[in-house]
Amino acid sequence: xxxxxxxxxxxxxxxxxxxxxxxxxxxxxxxxxxxxxxxxxxxxxxxxxxxxxxxxxxxxxxxxxx
Length: 66
What we know:
Number of strands: 7
Structural class: alpha/beta
Strand order of the largest sheet: 2-7-6
Shape: globular
Strand content: 15-25%
Radius of gyration: 11 Å
Largest sheet: 3 strands, mixed
């Protein structure tokens, strides 16, 4: 995913991005090991707690906050 920024990703997902929307995403990652420049998805409630283990930026249904 090198070269993509939050704004581009949100647009492709028909989502609204807020905050540092020009931040670059360098790779995909598991929520528990994500760095600040990684994209991690918690697709189930059982994975939400893993988001606090990495350096993840908050995302919720249809909205990305950075």
